[in-house]
Amino acid sequence: MVVDANSKEGIEAFAAKAAELGEVKYCIHTAGHSPNQASPEKIIDLDLIGSKYALDAFGKVIAKGGAGLLISSQTGYMFPPLSAEEEYQIMTTPADKLKDLPCLSPERITNSGTAYIVSKKANHLQVQYAAAHEWGERGARINTISPGVIVTPLAYDEFNANGAGYQRMIDATPMRRVGSPDEIGAAGAFLLSDAASYVTGTDLLVDGGTIAALKNKKFNLGR
Q1: Which CATH superfamily is domain 24-215 in?
Q2: CA nearest 4: which of 58, 46, 60, 66?
Q3: FRET partner for 99 with CA separation of 20 to 30 A, picked from 112, 117, 121, 140?
Q4: pLDDT digits (tens, 9 = 90+) for 1-47
Q5: Which residue among 52, 53, 77, 120 is the active-site one?
Q6: CA-CA-CA-CA torsion for 215, 121, 155, 187, nearest 10 degrees?
Q7: What φ, ψ does residue 207 adopt, rounded to 5°?
Q8: Residue 120 a catalytic site member
Q9: Cα 2 from Cα 164, distance rounded (Å)
Q10: CA dihedral 92, 94, 97, 99 (to 10 degrees)
């Protein structure tokens, strides 16, 4: 099916169609804009609210023993932070009401970078909620992966817009290189497999140590 990942109705129809075809054992949600691809509003709509639509829709059809995976980003660990109350609001607010939250207002989310960071942090929170509620009640697991700088077509848009900044990040990363789609695929295969049968509601950071370097002040995002 061709699915509009911004459309609640479209995603629900996709989930229903999948269930018609048989037991839904696995679900991987990858849709998202990067900061240099869209406005703050469009990033919130797709990366944050669209992801919530997918978690909700497939949480109604995922089979017992099934597993889901939402692709987030290492930026979910970057600034600006949300307060504990704001995190709880994002975690528990229905998808259709998320835009009413002050912490997601245009006055607060003033640029695409901030929208992206907040959206990816929200992915972690929404998956925690789903694991404890709909997905968990169906006996299914759901997790996120937060990739670092991975060489994909989306990444090239970012490189072209801010190549120097990304090179500084790569140089400061303990692994001293970018990651590959195969490495993210291997991490995803683990989380979906029976080897991770006791892992749910968590995020796997696969970033070559970028966030570790940032927290240890090996580089500064603003420089």
Answers
A1: NAD(P)-binding Rossmann-like Domain (3.40.50.720)
A2: 46
A3: 140
A4: 999 999 999 999 999 999 999 999 999 999 999 888 899 999 999 99
A5: 120
A6: 90
A7: -135, 10
A8: yes
A9: 36
A10: 70
Q: For Cα atoms 90, 124, 11, give the angle at the middle one, nearest 5 degrees.
A: 75
Known catalytic residue at 198? no
| Closest C-alpha to 148, from 172, 164, 125, 127 | 172
The string of pLDDT tens digits covering residues 122-181 is: 999 999 999 999 999 999 999 999 999 998 877 777 777 677 877 888 888 899 999 999
Q: Please state, in angstroms and rounded to a whole number, the distance separating the CA atoms of residues 152 and 143.
A: 22
Marked catalytic residue, from 52, 53, 77, 116: 116
Please report where in the chains the tokens 């006055």 appear, as a residue.
Answer: 107
Specify the amino acid at residue 198.
Answer: Y
- What tokens were used for 83? 């307060």
